[in-house]
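Continued from yesterday's entry.
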Amino acid sequence: MPSTTLPTPPVAATRAHVREHHGDRVDDAYEWLRDGDDPEVVGLLEAENAYADARTEHLKPLRDSIFGEIRSRVLETDLSVPVRSGPWWYYSRTVEGQQYPIQARVPVADAAVRPVVVPDRVPDGEQVLVDGNVEAGDSEFFSIGALTVSPDHTRLALATDATGDERFDLVIRDLTTGETLDEGITGIGYGVEFSLDGGTVFYTRLDDAWRPHQLWRHRVGGDPAEDVLVHEETDERFWMGIGTSRDDRWIIFSLGSKTTSEVRLLDAATPEADFRVVAARRDGVEYDVEPAEDRLLIVHNTDNPDSDLAWAPLDATSHDQWQPLLRAGTGERFLGVDAFDDVAVLSLRRDGLTALSLLAVDPSAESGYATPVPVGFDEPIYSVGLGDNRERDQSALQLVFESFVTPRTVLELDLSSGERTVLKQQPVIGDVDLSDYVQRREWATAEDGTRVPISVVHRADLAPDGTHPGLLTAYGAYEYSSDPYFSVARLSLLDRGVVHATAHVRGGGEMGRHWYDDGKLLAKPHTFSDTVACADRLVELGWVAGDRLGLEGGSAGGLLVGAVLNLAPDRFRVAHAAVPFVDALTTILRPDLPLTVGEWEEWGNPLEDPEVYAVMKAYTPYENVAPRDYPAILATTSLHDTRVFFTEAVKWVSRLRATVTNDEATRPILLRTEMAAGHGGRSGRYAAWEQVAWEWAFVLDQLGATSRLPRVHEDERAGGAAEEPARDRPEV
């Protein structure tokens, strides 16, 4: 712990500001902390950063150790699995000491012979498409919003962001000559797509609320002032995105709110024609479209909240033309479908986990497809999905599998024999034995009797004796599922005896559409009470000590952290809230702020509905800070975040400091702001590792878990853990 002489935390000034809705008058004295260009606001953020650094100065050796551990486990010069597209093999590679990947390709000599993956050797005939380290230059932040090669493989569209505000500048290059063909289009949204001949691109523009609201058409090499506005979406609930079919025949234009969608198609050979609406938007109906040679495959929720699979004629223009193909079974939730020449791959959730089913092409069936065959795996918890498969005529498909204890694995599934081959598994080097770790699924019972799944990973030598530190993570919003994934960084927690758990609370999508619906709008409080139930269950089972449990969540998960701390601050010793949506009511009451109107379908509209206002006010973290002891708290945010403004974190921390009764020496409240980053934090892999090391050093210090445990040896594992079956691996 730090010395007894503590630095003084910054104190934010208070200024009168009254908010009044539905007869409720609120004095929000920190609302003035909203202008990121105000020198006084920036000065406060810098003072908070200095205070956080001073309070954690003693943790520098631990931070350095964690960073070194992460780096020691990573093969820093590495190569992804090459993927064939037309006459080229495409891949990305990393180089030791460089922050960003290099995107490259080599010519296809034999489509049946994939280039050999050799990390420390540049493949023969390589053409570099994008070197992120060169593109980033001296910028502190760099991200890519589009990296698209034209269907004839001669042109590249690259959209980049150098601030973190998710507005991208577009450059189009000739891959044959290296010539820059365009660089005058700026401030666009995610995604750029070429017409079939590569002479035209489509891109989106953002409105003042950072919502993609316009689709534009640009002739490559032409004057951007002559670009054509193809569509402007005036319904503020709807976002838009642009993509193409796998065979590049169709440009797919998708529009969607949180509850309703609409898809339009355009023949990529006729870019100046009009897009055709597949089915006009119908309130509450969501659907995705996959062109499949002579028909469309459609995943939709018209009659089933967990969605069904249908087919329709290629020229369909109405819901009435959809024909049923497959209905979701009990415990299933259909997510999407991908079409190939010989098979369609259905992505779904089954019994709380991701899953895949294969539907072989069958010309004798009216739908064109045979009965689905599930793709099985035998680990208790895992994530699986389609990998990068760019050609329709593939005889084998890439799948990607991982779990808490199995590194990300690219498998090739032979469609004829069913044989699976490991193409690449994420290298984990250094002093690591993955058999030292085990994963398990536990269940908590919520206050209304609902069973809530918890995914847990820990060292194999730990027994449930009630002594271990723990870190509980959760999200619980937007039907986003917190599925298991492998992390070399997480090993630094596990090796210090931390039991890491993910609570799959309502508001997420893990258990189907009802799971989401029962944790949104007026049912949102279920998200927070579920989290408390999961925390209690970990203690009850003995996996975590009651006084050594931490809580972590980001964005909407940061809202969860703040709400749970107000609800049950005594359950936790420390909390980390990343880019936290903790002033949700203020934000959702202001339709002039970015993203607000579209969020009303998630949280409700407190402007119009007094009941929504009352429910939100009862759980919004900033509104409910109480004069009582809280855990130690670290809030992290970014100055240029356009999804959750830095304002929310600084207001919350200011109110916490002015209200709670914490002993500042043992349970500090810290705010750390990245001054050159966006919603995802710092860019570049080394910068990201440094950020993780900083955050986890604080958490580990508070949990009393700063020292690494001795290595696990098979004959020393505790009896309780030894009962866990040997770790299963993918069927290969």
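--- second protein ---
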Amino acid sequence: MKNLYFLALFAIVLASCQPNVKNTAKTTPSVTDTVVKAKKNPNFQWEAATVYFLLTDRFNNGNPENDLNFERDEATGKLRGFMGGDIQGITQKIKDGYFTKLGVNAIWFTPVIEQVHGATDEGTGNTYAYHGYWAKDWTALDPNFGTEKNLETLIKTAHENGIRVLLDVVLNHTGPVTEKDPAWPEEWVRTSPTCEFTTYENTTNCTLVANLPDILTESDTAVNLPDALLAKWKTEGRLSEELDELELFFDRTGHPRAPRFYIMKWLTDYINKYGVDGFRVDTVKHANENAWAELYKESSAAFELWKKKNADKVLDNNPFYMVGEVYNYGISGGREYDFGDKKVDYFANGFKSLINFELKTDAEKDYESIFSKYSKLLHSTLKDKSVLNYLTSHDDGQPFDKERTNPKRAANVLLLTPGASQIYYGDETARDLTIEGTEGDATLRSFMNWNELDSLAKTKEILNHWQQIGSFRNDHPAIGAGIHKIITKEPYVFSRYLNKDEFVDKVVIALDLPKGKKSISVKGVFGDGTKLYDRYSETESTVANGKVVLENNFDIVLLEPKQ
């Protein structure tokens, strides 16, 4: 790794000594349809990751033959049934270079384990478990999403393209009770009371909503496996295998056969088998924090073992990564989440990062207010930790710019704010979030708008903007993990600088620029005579008197040393 850093620095120095060659600036953005060769960033770090989050069922249908299983054919509310997206569809888009062109270096997709077979109505219309959060069997994949071979191929293909994979995991609840799906035994779950969310106790020891049985994650009492699960495994011809693996797990770890440890075993199997790089953990504040520390310990051990067995497939030296959904956590809260009567530091219990619910409101502020705030917090209170920023998601009914009036500003805010970034599928193509006739969060979960990307010039232009910034971000960890510093207020120019483990990275970025000729200060970052390259306009320039001069019709500049 160190050799790679020195070679990169040498290349920069060498390039700065070459004669000046002017390139003509692009006049119109373009989106190419050619497959892009994967560019693996040897300096990847989770603090600067660009994570693409998608609903497996709503992204891309790679295999129409698996669209209907378990007779899930009842009528549903609008956008509340399965629509055909699957694991193969995700793999197809990896192979097409879609994620690579967008600068994505990690993919998080909704759970693909076997879901409850029946439908239920939570007050928003008859609903099937298309979203993946209603587990029936943690040890099997749902055929609507695909097979274990499909998952293995997805992860292998992602890794070959320099993309890490985050599995979305649920530890604290099963799926709802339906006519086809009985409740788990009472020694496994509680079915009441429903959470009130006013204290630690009535947030952790309760059901998230009515008819969503809550795993007794706080219990250390040994329990037997549910008869229904044993009968299912026997029918599928894998009862002995599953029981033998559980015996080995509990003998090795010494954990009691309590509900949470069974599920931890089943979840870490996906690491042992496929080398999953991390977990996005659902509903974190609805289980005692010690459960997450235990999950991280078991996950890390599984990941290190996988890396030893698969040295030729290892992407980097990063440890196993866990990011948590502590609903309504904001970066201003620092290390702790306040339940009202108790504060919990989830960062001290297995989590490298938490999803940040604050950026969607911060996004209304000016760029400098956002960037300086996040840089300060991440390099002080949250030093060596991170947050995963987002503007829209699958269950946030108040996203930033729900009408998609300014998707380019959304890209600027999301991809240039310090921290890791979560692109929600369709952010980059302005997918509609206001679907008429939907109830609740269904409006946020329409099928990916590939048809608009294929036919509308405006959609292609929006995607190009996201691609330009996203690929620049992927190549420069300083954007997410570095120190932010304003250079000039008007025009708005700033730098990001990262110096970590003998790796140095620095860039200068300008936003809201006028069309035509523009002078960009790079003082204190790049010296006179340095050759710089603007990735947005594809223009080379040389620093003189602490500035570079560019002439184009773009309002953004992304400056890096000319390679």
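The radius of gyration is 24 Å. Confidence is low (pLDDT under 50) at residues 1-36. Will compare against the first tomorrow.
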